[in-house]
Amino acid sequence: MTHLDLIATRDDRVLAQASFAGSASYVTVSGVEHGPRTVLTLDGLTAAGDVVGHGRTCPVDFEHRGMEAPLYFAPTNFFAPTAGPPATTRLDPVAVPLADGTVLLAGGGDGAGVVADAELFSPGGATFAPAAMALNVPRQGAEAVLVPNVGALVTGGRDGSGQPIARAEVFDEAQRQFLSLPDDARLDARFGHRAVLLADGRTVLISGGQSQAAKALTSTVFIKVQPGGVAPISAGPPLSTARYQHAAVVAVGGPVMIGGYGIDGVPLASIEALRPADGAQPAAFVPIASLRFARAEATA
User: The whole model's pTM is what?
Assistant: First the structure.
């Protein structure tokens, strides 16, 4: 990007414009007539005149003469082609953003089976490259949750025969490798579950999902992820409603489970949250509200 163009318009009529070097940290335009429906557009262009960045304000009522109106153009995300295809075409891999800005893609189905290999996506060049690290267990449809200053926790999913997986592993970013956690019966082999990081920044809550025997699970697990692949596991309170492919968020300091499929495979409208222990009663998931429309495979 070699230069920036700032243009003020009203009802598609240009009021004022100015150009600046692409390295400018701020831009200004003067001579804008006061009046309603004023729109400022900022374009970033190459030397050849190609637009590589574009931003626009909503219509602003600029009503007073001789006044300055500071506006901030925040960067936003957009979709654009990558420089090439991924090293492996993957169905339902795990994706982990790393501290250096790259994104680690691992596992998933490649059309012939389920794989364990990984690759790195570099946003700057929009390129994919094979990575040396690999999952310890080939898996598809697993859940991965970022754990700051550690890496990521990967749980569940299905193997090449479609069976749910119980084993969990941690991607340790300092060692740049996946470390297997010890087998633990409390993990339950599951897929279609959800994993969320709790407010302490270390504990991950695993909830619901499907197992080999159950169409929908109520079980939950707490995993406290620490550097070096250390991750103590403890059983959590059961969900009030068995569910899978639900949405899970941490809101107002606690985890909230929204919708999903129930044991009959029908979307749920129920919403439940974890009520903390208070001395008189243990921690428990309790219904707190209902969606206006039952839904599954939604996001929140």
Answer: 0.74
